[in-house]
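Appendix B, example 12.
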Amino acid sequence: MNDDKTKGSEKKRQNRKLQQLEKRLRITFNNKSLLRRALTHRSFVNESTVPVKDNERLEYLGDSVLALVVNEYLFKSFENYPEGDLAKIKSAVVSEVMLANVAINLNLGDFILMGRGEELTGGRQRQSILANTLEAIIGAVYIDSGLTKSKKLVLRLLKKDIQRIDKLSYLRDPKTTLQEIVQKKYKNRPIYTVIQESGPDHSKIYTVKLVINDEDITMGSGSSKRKAESDAAKKALELIYSDRIHI
């Protein structure tokens, strides 16, 4: 009898968590088991005492749905952009880093079903797991409700990032973009200084410091001085356009 009560309480707790996530996603699943499966990491399956399916097939499907929705949006929204430029924006939008950031904003890590071992090694914060789970949810929405609702979800989660990426001039040289901003405001240029070289001669990593108007802004790294400077400029642009710094 006590076992039945325990199982009943656990099921209610899980259902409440699913409802919380649905509220954050602004989606109501017809088939709640699809959402549960989308949240099930393979490590949970390995440690489960009952048969359960992981989210990897849903992730595979969600990856395709995500690509279709983003590509269609870019095609319709950026009519003057050539194919190569659209591909660059799409690549940035569906990157593991970008998807993981979206998942973090949803606190998705709190809802993932994972094995104890995976959790103890930081699985709930791991970028790859967060990004893959988000893709699995997109796949689950597609199976549950079709393409229209999947499209609404994807654009609700990623539309601002698409616009931000375009605004950040990812399609151009970030050094050139930053230089134009700085020259317009201060009539001088950003200053890049190499502060560290590490690694063997055939595989060096350079670290540069970026200074704007006598103020340290950020640092960048890369396999050449040019790449390190470009990395620093890109980081500075992200800080500027997200209003985290004001130059």
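Strands lie at 191-198, 205-212, 215-222. The two ends are 66 Å apart (CA to CA).
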